[in-house]
Write a structure and sequence with these properties.
Blueprint lengths: L1 H15 L9 H23 L5 H29 L1 H4 L33
Amino acid sequence: MGLAYQINVVVTRHKVGLVLPHWQDWLPYVGVPALGSTSLIVGAVGLIAEKSFAPYAIAAAMVLSLAAGIYGAWDLTLWMIKNRDKTSPRNDSGSHVANRRLNQKTTCLVRFTGGRPTSP
């Protein structure tokens, strides 16, 4: 079912014109989940046929699904941090609440303020 859904998503994205911007994004967003779903199907068939590889195929499917989920969450988190000035709510004066930009050369601590303005 997961593999059929993945194929449906890819076909629908192409029909609507929503394609991933870089070919490198296909591997973690399409390839790894599809491989995980395929591995789960193979493991299920192997389990029914009482083959010795079945538990390993199912375990591989779970690891691939976990890795795809972690990558997606991490990618979304980085996007939110990078674009927080563009997407942050505005206060009464029209300026951004989170007006500090990330300095890519230094490490900084990201504070979540719950939409409230913070003092510098």
